[in-house]
Amino acid sequence: MKEKSSLSVLLNGIIKENPVLVLILGTCPTLATTTTVDGAFGMGIAALVVLVCSNVFISLLRKVIPETMRIPCYIVIIAGFVTMVKMMIQAFLPSLYEALGVYLDLITVNCIILGRAEMFANKNAVVASALDGVGMGLGFTLSLTVMSTIREVFGAASFAGIAIPFMQDYKIEFLTKAPGGLLVYGLLIALIYVVTQGKAPLKKSFSCEGCPNAEFCNSQNCDMKGA
After folding, report:
1. For residue range 192-220, what is the model confidence (pLDDT) as tens digits?
2. Quick one: pLDDT at residue 11?
3. Cα–Cα distances in angstroms (integers) from residue 63 to residues 9, 106, 123, 124, 174, in the given order
4. Which residues are CB-contacts of 39 (< 8 A; sequence separation ≥ 6)?
5. Nearest CA to 21 among 206, 179, 191?
6. Distance (Å, rounded) from C-alpha 104 to C-alpha 116?
7. How far apart are the first and last CA of the chain?
8. What is the 3-state secondary structure (H, E, C) of the chain?
9. pTM confidence score
10. Which terminal residue of the chain, N or C, has fewer Cβ atoms less than 10 Å from its own Cβ?
11. pLDDT for the residue 202
């Protein structure tokens, strides 16, 4: 892969195909862990490590994993890396482990990680897959960090648990709650849409090519049209 292409793969997940603000993936951990900067950053880094490791491992095994068993195999691989990351956080960062709770385990079924395994690592070489994992992981981490900074600073008058004295009388506690999280999330999505001038990959056309159920769907549509 050429250097320019490698850089493009690395930067792709930060803005152009940001997994949280453009592809709208991983919404559950995004809303749940962004009430504090510490929790959001910790979740982002944990997901980044799992994403890079699973992408590399799946890319290495892409020609060995049976086509009909690829999704279960991906989940087993991802779950293995999630378990290792979880054990390391529990051993060295117990406060973060307690703060993230069940959302650490849910990284296993995070659609960002499973989606990159299916859409990228399954079709590309190891280096490109690693770069994709780093880019998408950074995009996820940056999105969570920015969102949590807004919510914690303006909602709780603190940053990473450190109180901001002059903000105490002006904090908007609504932002620390679920509706406030949705509001901040929506505003950030709108901002990215303006920055990218609406050129999100979601505007591209999709096809059924490569889908194992394509033939069945087409036959069903034909039957419906005939009716």
Report:
1. 888 877 665 544 444 455 454 555 455 54
2. 86
3. 22, 27, 9, 11, 50
4. 33, 96, 99, 100, 148
5. 191
6. 18
7. 50
8. CCHHHHHHHHHHCCCCCCCCCCCCCCHHHHHHHCCCHHHHHHHHHHHHHHHHHHHHHHHHCCCCCCHHHHHHHHHHHHHHHHHHHHHHHHHHCHHHHHHHCHHHHHHHHCHHHHHHHHHHHCCCCHHHHHHHHHHHHHHHHHHHHHHHHHHHHHHHCEECCEECHHHCCCCCHHHHCHHHHHHHHHHHHHHHHHHCCCCCHHHCCCCCCCCCCHHHHHHHHHHHHHC
9. 0.83
10. C
11. 47
What six digits make up the tokens of 111?
Answer: 């659609």
pLDDT beyond 80 at 226: no
* C-alpha to C-alpha distance for 150 and 24, rounded to whole angstroms: 19
> Which token pair is 67?
């086509």
Q: Is 197 left (phi over 0), alpha (psi -120 to 50) or beta?
A: left
Q: Helices 126-156 and 37-60 sit at what angle, rounded to 10 degrees? A: 170
| Rounded CA separation 139/19 (Å) | 7
Contact assessment for residue 75 and residue 180, using Cβ atoms and an 8 Å cutoff:
no
Of residues 203 and 177, the one with the higher pLDDT is 177
How far is the C-alpha of 35 from the C-alpha of 177, rounded, in Å?
Answer: 8
Furthest C-alpha separation in the chain: 70
Mean pLDDT calculated for residue range 113-123: 91
